[in-house]
């Protein structure tokens, strides 16, 4: 909780656009409260919490939506639509069953977490 409050305080001093995303990883067996922890974090920050089931996501396109030249580009994806709707706003995104996705998806998410900008 102290880390979250420190991050919020830093964003107030630096300005939201200069801040990197706050990334928290909740790991553990099923039924130990990871989802509840993410929901509580959203409530603590008084913000929208989006839960994305990663078990069915096996490609970067499924995670971020189709690239610009593809037909389904307008539909986006659950993650991309959420990030677009809450652009420059604080929100919590919980990636449930993350370990069930593949290495390409993990690598693409690492780039997003590092830069703070999605594709």
Structure description:
This protein has one domain: 3-Layer(aba) Sandwich (Rossmann fold), CATH 3.40.50. It has five helices and two strands. The longest helix has 13 residues. The two termini are 29 Å apart.
CATH class: Alpha Beta
Instruction: Count up the domains.
Output: 1
Shape: globular
* CATH architecture designation: 3-Layer(aba) Sandwich
Strand content: 5-15%
The radius of gyration is 15 Å
Low-confidence blocks of residues: none
Distance between the termini: 29 Å
Number of helices: 5
The description of the largest β-sheet is: 2 strands, parallel
Average residue pLDDT: 80
What is CATH's topology name? Rossmann fold
Helix content bin: 40-55%
Order the strands across the largest sheet as they lie in space: 1-2
Secondary-structure content class: mainly alpha
Give the number of DSSP strands: 2
> What is the string of SSEs from the N terminus onward?
HHEHHEH
Q: Give the CATH H-level superfamily.
A: P-loop containing nucleotide triphosphate hydrolases
Describe how the helices and strands are arranged.
Layout: H1 2-14, H2 34-44, E1 49-53, H3 60-64, H4 78-85, E2 92-96, H5 103-115
Parallel strand pairs: 1-2
